[in-house]
# Entry
Amino acid sequence: MSAEAQKGDFTSSLGRIYGVYTGGFVAFVVFIGVLERAGVPNHILGYLFVAFTIGVYAAIGIMSRTMQVDEYYVAGRKVPSFYNGMATAADWMSAASFIGMAGTLYLLGYDGLAFILGWTGGYVLVATLIAPYLRKFGCYTVPDFLAFRFGGNAARIAGIVVLMSCSFTYVVAQIVGTGLIGARLLGMSFEVAVFVGLVGILVCSMLGGMRAVTWTQVAQYIVLIVAYLVPVVILSTQKFGIPIPQLTYGSVLSEIQTREAALGVSAAASHVVPFARYDPLNFFALVLCLMVGTASLPHVLMRYFTTPSVREARSSVAWTLLFIFILYFTAPAYAAFAKLEVFENVIGKPLAQLPGWVYNYGKIGLVQICGTNAVDLATITAACGRISGFTGVLQLANFGIQADAIVIATPEIAGLPYVVSGLVAAGGLAAALSTADGLLLAIANALSHDVYARMINKNAPVARKLIIARVLLILVAIIAAWVASGRPADIVAMVAWAFSLAAAGLFPALVMGIWSKKTTAAAAVAGIWAGFLTTLVYLVVTRYFPGFGVNVLGMYSNVHPITGAALVDIAKLKAEQPAIFQQGWVAISHPLASKVGYFNVANISAGLFGMPIGFLTMYIVSKFTTAPTKELQSFIDDIRRPKGGAVMIEK
# Structure
């Protein structure tokens, strides 16, 4: 994928190239299955999966190396909409989506659909309000647009601060995901697996920037979507004889309800009952914040800078929606099949008869029994023995599985061959790597292009700009891996913060910058800071200073149950919070659901306050400050016209 190939007929051969790649990947999976049948140990098969997939990604990254600025930052603006949609879907479907989406639906049931509605709905906003117009502008980064539209570095700096706040914890979470998958697939420690994943991330993006990331993400999407579909298609075929899990989803839900009734789960806490974990206010507030946040995340928006035209930018959003839909349309069925398998094969079993996968995932902290990690039979027997009235049979309230484990554990839960488990882990690794690449590139590009090239050394030669970009990419990646190696307890919650922070800090400025010609520079800067700081303060106060809000979990326990502490008063919890209690240890400690703040708005939906404050601040300040020049207003008119080339060409 050299520069010469890019200038030639490479893009016209994409179908053939990725067709051969897909066929080769399927053949490799079949080969691994043959090796498994031949008795090759599982850990060897795991190493083969990692070596093959990361090796392919690395090869693409190396072949896509470049020393051209537009190739490094925006892939030369040559990416066809179909493939940009696929790359954007891979960029978007992070470890949180691939690994966590079905797990969240497993834990929250119906209420977990808020995440699917919000994340998919966000791309409608991207297509109608933002992406085509940023592409028409012709910038390299989101802060670039803010700086030009709102006249200077004050808006650029504000945009960079929000971008860094949204992106850093997000990329740390992706590296945590690579560590979890590597620890399970390779049998190494989590800390070592984190840095192994870091190498995979860097070889995909360091040499070729956006060009390398784009073509790698297309390859990663193919891996992750095949990996996601295969297990649930197999389960659907085994149970109902129909290889379309979406069609058998209703039957699985009926069986879950029957099992829940037998286990004594109250109707109010059922998997299918709406508003059992979120009330309507928080459900729809979460949908709104996720929609608006998705439409504002810089690593998503920058993907639409790579298309050849405004029209292709718009159509690539449609392709993105389709490719995301395939996974999200499957996630509820995935969660339902996983829950049914747990109900059938784990709950109600004597401790001595629990399957081996419980201990495999307990050793890496993803499965808890009686409040302690399920490391081995002796450990859980001792923990359960401390619970009054425990009969030796595992009950639902004594079993906890982290959301992160559901997808990667389901093949083992269902007793499928190891090749399927390895395939799923490879898919999760592809999801984590693809998003980490996009996020690291967004951070490094903001620092190298917006800070160094635009504010520190405007006359820097091209070679120096790209060297600075690569050095910063490596430094940010190492810092993120170091933070991830400590496995921070709050990282999942902080990732959720990214959507509210982007919704409050960037969405008003982007929308007003495109759709309101009279929004002034002072108004935009004031609005960005007002929305961002309002949301940040709400997030910090409600999470770390529960005396100012309401800490649901804190009313019943001294420590977070995921660390192994037992609840202080199980009887009180069961009496006062039956819907929460029935979900077991992990559900009540779920970081996305456990904190409630002022006006009964959950911590995760803090953007509900910051976003309107941002819009209102921009509107009011614009009334009292000098309107933009006629030239700038004409420039905005040009941006909103669908036809024509880019208004501003980057150098």
